[in-house]
Specification:
By secondary structure, the protein is mostly helical. The chain folds into 2 domains: 360 residues, no CATH class; 32 residues. The chain has a two-stranded antiparallel sheet. The chain has a two-stranded antiparallel ribbon with strand order 3-4. A two-stranded antiparallel ribbon has the order 5-6. A hairpin with a 5-residue loop joins strand 5 and strand 6. Helix 1 packs antiparallel against helix 2, helix 4 packs across helix 5 and helix 6 packs parallel to helix 9. The protein is globular and about 90 Å long.
Amino acid sequence: MFEDTEVIIRIVEVFALSVVIAFATTPLSIRLAHKLGVIDTPKDSRRMHKKPMPRFGGMAIFLGSIAAMTIPAGMNEKIRIAMIGGILMYGLGVTDDVFDLKPAAKFLGQLFIASAMYSAGIRITFISNFFGAKVTDANANVILSAGLAYIITVLWIVGITNAVNLMDGLDGLAAGSVAIMALALAYIAYIHGHKLGSMPVCIALVAVAGGCLGFLPYNFSPAKTFMGDGGSLYLGYMIAVLSVISPLKRATIVGALVPMLTLAVPILDTGLAMLRRTLRHESIMRADKGHLHHHLMAAGFGQKRSVLIMYGIVGIMGEVAVLISRELYKDAFFLFLIALLYLVIIIFPKSPKKNLKKLITQDTSDIEKELFVQYLNEEREKRKRIREEAIKAAESESPAEDVTDGNGKEENKTE
């Protein structure tokens, strides 16, 4: 009991410190953004903001979470290594914010950092034995070869890093969603902490969530600042790496699914983006307006409601992961179906005449054009009906009447 109290106090300290530092340093990041010229201008239709916005807010998230993370860093060597990688990833993002790196250069930088983390011992060395493989460890997990472990680890880190980066499309979406995902993973690490030794991971995830929540008041719609690539790449990296460090996946045969379920929304969104661009014969790095939040905006929900809907879906998937970690599979399954239903409604709007490929490849620019054409046709029909009704009304009126004035002269008068 005493040990639990100490852990809770430590968690509260880390969370409070991270929130306060992030909140206090965000105004400083706004001033620095203006001095350095790190401003996001709405130069294309993909951007949702209408005026130039500073995009250096990731500094506040970084400072808040890293400062708070020094508390658990001494308890776990891998967390200290993860923090070094986080500093490198943040530096890469800031370089992109200031100098606008080419996508290939940014991707190579991510590969280098992920490879460095693998070399330092942060790696996925096994997967759950779903298919009855014969080569397993004592926990019935399939042991990966060094080459395969490297590929999966790097793909996981780079993939989640970019998935979070792609979420940063609406005010408050990435910061709030990462906070929810981090808290879900932190709670999972907490409830299994004493058995698996994952308390340091729990505290580090709380620090990340605190940095996001301290920044969110300045970033929620209407935003005063954006986190930029420095913030989004750092957050994606930390979520990916801390989920790898956590020993939770050793708890059950399906425990390896927990991080994937928690991060299901950004993973799905990124997978659909890659599929959409491949089917359209475009580069998978090409930006478009086909993400989940774009679909919500096109449906007319507006920024605040679209973001809150996404928070809800991310939260449901976080709860699914918690239930899976506690082996409550039936409860998790029904919650998962609810989240899946909402995602299907968002991704595939009412378009009965379109085939599956058309639905997948279209982005909201196509939808907006179709809606505009539909609006013009409806207006044309409406005006046509008004003209026809006016003509009918004129024809039904009585003809001109002859009236006599006071002098006995006839005068033609019409109404």
